[in-house]
């Protein structure tokens, strides 16, 4: 196994890190305290060329791989996890899914402005009563002439308040259950679409999140992504990549919490010496490092597997590995950030020390893109699939 990054991957890693430190770092306090989203964020992402990492050059992309995308969100998350999540929702959840599943006409229309940062993208799947059970979504899409009419609502949509282009899932044949879901590209100016409210969150502040409403929303029939009633294929083909990329965000947060903790433990003195000299602090730092490195290697390996994994089929090695990557990385980040708070003591619980912000931010990745409980179910299902088949179970 080759653990060396390519020159292109290293270049993305270094350029995002430098940009995040220099440009996002000074804004961190304002972003978190005011739940403020920098209006020029996507334009600046476009300037350093990271909005179309996994997309073809003819649309303005880099033609890079999943690991490059993962490295980008990891490095951004080491400085600003909230904007890193917003970046991933735009570049991966929305644009890359369009790139993978839409026809050429839709790709030519929507990808260039998304990659250039002229439009902001979002994925709209989760609903008020359909979170982990995504297949039970209630948003409906009825074909009427050359349009589909959408009715329903979406909840917890990252970039929802600011998105121009949304990839939306709706039931086109409710009687067929999961086999009656379709995917559509919706523009914010389509009649019948509205942002119901911006949601207030305890963490990932600065990443705008919303509830969306579709009330007789008119969507051109040509904005159907893929075939009618094949939305689950679009959905599942993107979820594995989504989980891996977001897992990179967890690795970045864990690394940042470790960095803060090392620095603080050397600077902070008690009983006449730096607390880094105490065995209990040393144990915490060692365990934080070991878990962060283990998460990083699992996420990187999943990203490499994802690049060449075949699409389609019932269950894949990639599905199992992607679920394991985000399960372990997300829980590692939460644990590492919690240990960081403990090392900082009372100061860690004060808003003036940034480790508490990471603590609030990290928890979301145990919930979004499938909860930890759902991820464990996915892994167990894939582990037992062949044995069930051998025993004749369906």
Would you kindly provide a brief summary of this structure?
Strands 1-4-5-8 form a four-stranded mixed β-sheet. Strands 2-3-7-6 form a four-stranded antiparallel β-sheet, with helices on one face. Strands 9-10 form a two-stranded antiparallel ribbon. The chain has helices at about 5-25, 30-35, 40-45, 65-75, 80-100, 105-115, 230-265, 280-310, 315-345, 355-360, 370-390, and strands at about 120-125, 140-145, 145-160, 165-170, 180-185, 195-200, 210-220, 225, 270, 275. By secondary structure, it is of the alpha+beta class.
Structure notes:
With 394 residues, the protein is of the alpha+beta class. It has three domains: 7-120, Acyl-CoA dehydrogenase/oxidase, N-terminal domain (Butyryl-Coa Dehydrogenase, subunit A, domain 1), CATH 1.10.540; 122-225, Butyryl-CoA Dehydrogenase, subunit A, domain 2 (Beta Barrel); 232-391, Butyryl-CoA Dehydrogenase, subunit A, domain 3 (Up-down Bundle). The chain is built from eleven helices and ten strands. Strands 1-4-5-8 form a four-stranded mixed sheet. Helix 1 runs parallel beside helix 4 (66-77). The longest helix is centred in the middle third of the chain and has 37 residues, at 231-267. The relative contact order is 0.11. The mean pLDDT is 94.
């Amino acid at each position: 196994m080759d653990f060396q990054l390519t020159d292109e991957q290293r270049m993305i890693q270094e350029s995002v890190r430098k940009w995040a430190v220099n440009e996002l770092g000074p804004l961190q306090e304002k972003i978190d305290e005011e739940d403020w989203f920098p209006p020029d964020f996507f334009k600046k992402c476009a300037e350093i060329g990271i909005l179309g990492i996994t997309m073809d050059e003819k649309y303005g992309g880099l033609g890079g791989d999943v690991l490059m995308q993962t490295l980008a969100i990891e490095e951004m998350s080491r400085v600003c996890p909230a904007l890193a999540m917003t970046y991933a929702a735009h570049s991966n959840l929305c644009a890359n899914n369009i790139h993978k599943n839409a026809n050429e006409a839709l790709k030519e229309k929507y990808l260039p402005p998304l990659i250039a940062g002229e439009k902001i993208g979002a994925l709209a799947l989760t609903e008020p009563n359909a979170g982990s059970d995504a297949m039970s979504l209630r948003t409906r899409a009825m074909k009427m002439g050359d349009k589909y009419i959408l009715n329903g609502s979406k909840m917890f949509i990252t970039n929802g308040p600011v998105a121009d282009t949304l990839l939306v899932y709706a039931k086109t044949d409710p009687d067929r259950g999961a086999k009656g879901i379709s995917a559509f590209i919706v523009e914010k100016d389509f009649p019948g679409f509205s942002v119901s409210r911006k949601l207030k969150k305890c963490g990932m502040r600065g990443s705008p999140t919303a509830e969306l409403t579709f009330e007789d929303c008119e969507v051109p029939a040509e904005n159907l992504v893929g075939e009618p009633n094949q939305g689950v294929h679009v959905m599942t083909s993107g979820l594995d990549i989504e989980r891996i990329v977001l897992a990179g965000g967890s690795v970045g947060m864990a690394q940042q919490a470790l960095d803060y903790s090392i620095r603080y433990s050397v600077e902070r003195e008690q009983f006449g010496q730096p607390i880094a000299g105490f065995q209990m602090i040393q144990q915490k730092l060692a365990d934080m490092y070991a878990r962060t490195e283990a998460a990083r290697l699992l996420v990187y390996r999943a990203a490499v597997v994802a690049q060449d994994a075949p699409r389609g089929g019932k269950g894949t090695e990639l599905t199992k590995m992607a679920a394991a990557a985000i399960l372990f990385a997300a829980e590692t980040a939460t644990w590492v950030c919690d240990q960081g708070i403990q090392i900082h003591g009372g100061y860690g619980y004060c808003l003036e020390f940034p480790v508490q912000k990471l603590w609030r931010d990290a928890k979301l990745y145990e919930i979004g893109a499938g909860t930890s409980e759902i991820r464990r179910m996915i892994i167990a299902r894939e582990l037992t699939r062949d044995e069930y088949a051998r025993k004749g179970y369906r």
